[in-house]
Structures are given as structure tokens and as C-alpha cells.
Automatic annotation (TrEMBL):
This is NAD(P)/FAD-dependent oxidoreductase. It comes from the Bacteria. InterPro entries: FAD-bd_OxRdtase, FAD/NAD-bd_sf, FAD/NAD-binding_dom, FAD/NAD-linked_Rdtase_dimer_sf, Rubredoxin_C. It comes from Noviherbaspirillum pedocola. Its cofactor is FAD.
């Protein structure tokens, strides 16, 4: 049989995981061509933080080196950004004119970092934190400058702040909400995290809104100015204020996009020859930024590309298990509680342990854990399966062993 042509736009974790799954199911089905905008092969974006902190190098975080593509007969184009998709002729064209024909196209274009629309965002020394290039620029800045400001107190911002602190910079985290990681933690847990990080030398400006970034005479950022008139010095500003699905290529090709490339349960777009996976996708109204859902999407897309056609992606119930600079955190479900919900609390600030379980109608609907996350997976299972906890309610706080 003549092989079909599969073109993959995006060489990140979701796109390459789809190829890995496809090679398990139907290794001879396609001639595969991959386009990656970065000059690097497939690496683990989650491990950029240890690279910034000096604990690992670029080689340590590679998932599939260039040899892997060659071994599997995959044509790899690195440092090549796809400029347009011609859906009539079924080809993709890069910015420098390379063309590749496809029978099936997989879009894994990921997401773009959101940059605050404030004056001064174009200055030298103002970065996002998204890829190896950003990480290298931060490492270089840390060797020459003293003061850094990280705008954004979510996971990425805190990891950036920790890495820059370990490289000797004075670091202030600016965050508009009143507590850190407000999407994963409640105010008490966020407060405990802040105290721990302050003890390690990080500074925080919470509830502060950035008005502008100020320049020195050479055109480099020198300070962050707030709406209330205050300012703090910064020769490096890292914006970690969120991501947006990267849909420009799909939109230009006429695919339906709405806060992401809209796909069905088989990961197909409105053009049945074109599939999409990863952070660029909107599935049933949700865009996912965590790794577990992206890998679940990859499995489903591979199953259909292999013509098995039996898997469906029905969305993901997500939990967050993190190690923020050595502090264990876990959250899942509706951990903020709400009307009709009850809370079981255990708080031990001295030992740095906080546990909050949220119950409604004899079911666990949310959990937030700091310091002791050993039972996170068990709580997540109870939550996802929706089973009654009426019989174990009295011992629920003490974990699965109890």
C-alpha cells in the first residue's frame, strides 16, 4: 500500500506524543514530516525551571533528539515556521518557501505567552517565559544585572522567580490578586506558600497593578511603575501572566476557531483531514494547559489517524500536583467550596501542613493540600469517580491508609 502523507505543524510535547502513539499503532501507515519553529528537537517544556535554576542543562530535558526522527524515517524541519495552509491543494508552506503536501495534517501549534499591554513592554530586558530561548536570555541577564521583577504569581512566575533568585538576583514577584496561585490554591494555602517563599529570600508585591515599564538611557528596562505611583527597580522583567492558544495559522486557513482551534471528540477540526491537539485546541469549550490532557488528546488523535476509530476524548478532570521550589502542593475540583458545600480543615502552620476537603451531598468535590500531598491521588480518584464518602467521612482527612 502507498503510504499517506502526514504533516505535523508543531514539534512540542503534544504533537510528538501523537506521533509516538501513532508509531505504536500503525508504524507503516504514513510518511511523516514535522515542522518546528524552534531550532531544537522535542524537549520537556516543564523542565525549563531546573535549567533556569542551574540544576539541569538543555541536553537533560530533551525527550527526542534529532537521531530519533531519523531512526523512524521522519522528515524534520527545525527553525521553520509554517506561514500558511492551502486546504485546496493540501499543502503547507513555510515562511522561507518550503512546501509539504499532506493527506492528513496535525496542528500542534501550542500557545503564545500573553504580554501585558503596558507602555514599555517592547524594551530590552522584557521577556516572557515560554521556551529555551527565553530561558537562555534570563540566564544571560542574571549574569549581568542585579534586580528582576516577575509579573505573575502563578506556577510559572514562581518558578522563574526561584530560578533567578538561585542565580543571584534580587527578585520581586508582582501579582494583581491578593494571594499566590489563586487558580490552584485558596487564600490560606496561598498565604502559607508566600511565607515560605519569603523566608527563602523572594519579595512580593500583591494586589499591585502594573502601569508601565520605564527605560534607561540605553533603551533597557530600569523599573516597574505601579498604578498607585510606586515603582521598583528592574533590569529584567519576566511576564508570566498567562497563555493564549496559538490559532493564527488555523484562522488564516479558514478553520473554525473560538478561544482555540475547535475540535470534536476525535480531535478533528471542521476540516476532516485536519486534526489538532494540545494547548492550541478548544474542546467542548475548554482549552487545557496541563500535560495530562494533552497526552490524552494525543492518544485519541493517533487512534483515528491510524484508522482504528474507537477512542473518544470527552474532556479531562484535572488535578494539579506541583512542587513549587520544593514545596508540595495539590489541588483538584471545586476546592474553593461554595453554596451547599461543607469543608473539613486541618491546619498546622508550624509544620507547614494545610489540608482542605470540600464535600457536597456526601461526595468529595474538591481538595487543596499544602506540605502533605501523599493522599492527593486517592482524593482525586474519589472526586473523579463521584463515589459516596458517607461511610468514611470521619477518617477522610487522615488519608487512604486510615
Amino acid at each position: 500500500m502507498k503510504k499517506l502523507k502526514l504533516v505535523v505543524v508543531g514539534n512540542g510535547m503534544a504533537g510528538v506524543r501523537t506521533i509516538e502513539e501513532l508509531l505504536k499503532l500503525a508504524p507503516e501507515a504514513y510518511d511523516i514530516t514535522v515542522f518546528g519553529a524552534e531550532p531544537y528537537a522535542n524537549y520537556n517544556r516543564i523542565l525549563l525551571s531546573p535549567v533556569l535554576a542551574g540544576e539541569q542543562g538543555i541536553k537533560d530535558i530533551m525527550l527526542n533528539d534529532v537521531d530519533w526522527y531519523a531512526q523512524h524515517g521522519i522528515t524534520l524541519h527545525l527553525g521553520k515556521k509554517v506561514a500558511r495552509i492551502d486546504r485546496v491543494r493540501r499543502i503547507v508552506v513555510t515562511e522561507d518557501g518550503i512546501e509539504a503536501a499532506y493527506d492528513r495534517l496535525l496542528l500542534a501549534t501550542g500557545s503564545q505567552p500573553f504580554m501585558l499591554p503596558v507602555p514599555g513592554r517592547q524594551l530590552d530586558g522584557v521577556l516572557s517565559y515560554r521556551d529555551i530561548g527565553d530561558t537562555n536570555a534570563m540566564i544571560e541577564a542574571a549574569s549581568r544585572y542585579t534586580d528582576a521583577v516577575v509579573i505573575g504569581g502563578g506556577l510559572l512566575g514562581l518558578e522563574a522567580a526561584n530560578g533567578l533568585k538561585l542565580r543571584g538576583m534580587r527578585v520581586t514577584v508582582v501579582h494583581l490578586p491578593q494571594w499566590l496561585m489563586e487558580r490552584q490554591l485558596d487564600p490560606v494555602a496561598g498565604g502559607m506558600l508566600r511565607e515560605t517563599l519569603e523566608a527563602r529570600g523572594l519579595h512580593f508585591a500583591l494586589g499591585r497593578n502594573t502601569k508601565a515599564l520605564l527605560a534607561d538611557d540605553a533603551g533597557r528596562v530600569r523599573a516597574v511603575q505601579f498604578e498607585d505611583g510606586g515603582e521598583i527597580p528592574a533590569q529584567l522583567v519576566v511576564m508570566a501572566v498567562g497563555i493564549r492558544p496559538n490559532t493564527a495559522l488555523a484562522e488564516a486557513a479558514g478553520l473554525f476557531c473560538q478561544r482555540g482551534i475547535v475540535v470534536n471528540d476525535t480531535m478533528q477540526t471542521y476540516d476532516p483531514r485536519i486534526y489538532a491537539v494540545g494547548e492550541c485546541v478548544n474542546h467542548r469549550g475548554t482549552a487545557y494547559g496541563l500535560v495530562a490532557p494533552l497526552f490524552e488528546m494525543a492518544q485519541v488523535a493517533a487512534n483515528h489517524l491510524a484508522s482504528f476509530g474507537v477512542k473518544r476524548y470527552r474532556g479531562s478532570v484535572t488535578s494539579t500536583k506541583l512542587k513549587v521550589t520544593g514545596i508540595d502542593l495539590f489541588s483538584a475540583g471545586e476546592f474553593m467550596g461554595g453554596e451547599g458545600a461543607e469543608e473539613i480543615l486541618l491546619s498546622d502552620p508550624v509544620s507547614g501542613v494545610y489540608k482542605k476537603l470540600v464535600i457536597k451531598d456526601d461526595k468529595l468535590i474538591g481538595a487543596c493540600l499544602v506540605g502533605d500531598t501523599v493522599d492527593g491521588a486517592w482524593y482525586f480518584r474519589l472526586l473523579r469517580e463521584g463515589q459516596s464518602i458517607a461511610d468514611i467521612r470521619d477518617s477522610l482527612m487522615f488519608g487512604e491508609a486510615a
